[in-house]
Amino acid sequence: MPSTSQESSAQTPPVPSTSTAPRTGTVTRRSIVAGAAWTAPLVVAAASAPFASASPACVPAGTLFNVDASGRLLSGSLLNTNLNSIAGVAGANVSVAPGTPGNAATTSSPLNVDLLAATLLSLGLRLPVPGAAVGLVNQFAAAAAAGTFTGASGAVADNSGAISTTAGVAGAPQLATVDLSTILSGVTGSPALTALVGAISNLSLSVGAVGNRLNVDARCTENSVPTVRQHEYVLSYLRAVVNTPIVGTLFSALNGNLSIDTAALLTALRAIPVLGPALNGLVGGLLSLSATVTVSNGPLTNQRIPNGVNDPVSIDFGAGNIVVDLAPLVGLPYDGAGNSGLNGRPANTRLFAAPYLPTVSTALFVDALAQALVTALLNTITVDIGISLLGLRVLRIQGTLAAVVNGTATITLAGGLLGLNLGPVLGEIGTAVRNSVVGAVVGLLGTTNVLLDNLFLVLRDVVAITVNAQEVSQTPTNTSTDASALRLSIVPGAAAAGLLDLRLARGSGTTARRTP
């Protein structure tokens, strides 16, 4: 069952009732619907401005308000174009004043993806094709003169604004692709961005399904802030997608001969019990190691490696992309049910700012990539390794890397090693050989760690990624509340703010007290 949370001051007295308007600012468990096939437990975030110790003040019974409410999937600016000026982006908006029939109103207006696709694409934003957008682009608003409102958008019900998506990555549809290469093309003054652009063909941000619902009841306030505010949001995933020639170069290099560090492998083998003492006991000259390692890249075609749900960095060879899943990257992994750690964050959580920073160094991310690639290629990597003394081979290991690792490779002994029982240490021999192959693949990954370093700097110093973005402004009689599941913007000072200030899945509203 999806869960909800509602925040109110512990000192808030009962909210005055009214016979003229429904309580649209209250959400019950019954009102949360599961309207999609990919349902899973809903993660909810509720937040508000800090409260002082003073008791909340409630308006007299019968007090009415002017209330505006809005649910907008897209708002802000892209490439210095105000999205509000584009026909069809306006969202669902409703205004109520005392005297409005019923003192309440609701409206819904799904975003017309077909109408807007070409215009938004020219601004660096790609939305799903119309058929795939059903259920992802709804917009809903409700307001009551009693002082309550709801603003919802994204994967929400079009008759109530209730969130109807999951926080899970598995099977969640993609809502949008933000073309950061296009949007950031005019940014100067960032060495990391300049270096990144020189190493890639394109950089984009893939945004999974999002939903957002804001409910406010302004009848009781503390320090002019409504004490009953409920904000629910869900964000399936965020992935930086880097199209780079590095992927194609790597794919080609993983087809043919692979050069390993033979000196390092010999040192590793000499450190293994049983084998090491036997090798070190040979007299008469220096030992030498030769190796022929070949690989076929067939298993890499058209798959993402690694493909675990919490693998932060992976390679999609079919598309030529390095894919960075931001949630596990910054220590917010998916749980066992696939729910993203991006959900349930405090208000205005900024990724790539403490404490939400990459969990390990880029060198370790690259090593993990190499390990995953070798695992995928175990059965197509063949090795022929020989150790010789004075030109005479005393040990030979032959087979696939999988056979070497599991201890079933062909091992031939001669000379002073003849009759040596290596059975107890076959696993250690396999690990040493595998590690040497991993080292070779790390070398083939080349400057991938530099690319990742520059990408992370751009996402820290140029682009601000904010989850559960919230703003509240108030006077003694007026309150404006705004909440978005996701906000993408330019870090202040990095470039003109209008270049990128995109809010996805936004709910907002204003209440102005009119009569006592």
UniProtKB/TrEMBL annotation:
<protein>
    <submittedName>
        <fullName>Choice-of-anchor G family protein</fullName>
    </submittedName>
</protein>
<dbReference type="InterPro" id="IPR006311">
    <property type="entry name" value="TAT_signal"/>
</dbReference>
<dbReference type="InterPro" id="IPR047900">
    <property type="entry name" value="Choice_anch_G"/>
</dbReference>
<feature type="region of interest" description="Disordered">
    <location>
        <begin position="1"/>
        <end position="26"/>
    </location>
</feature>
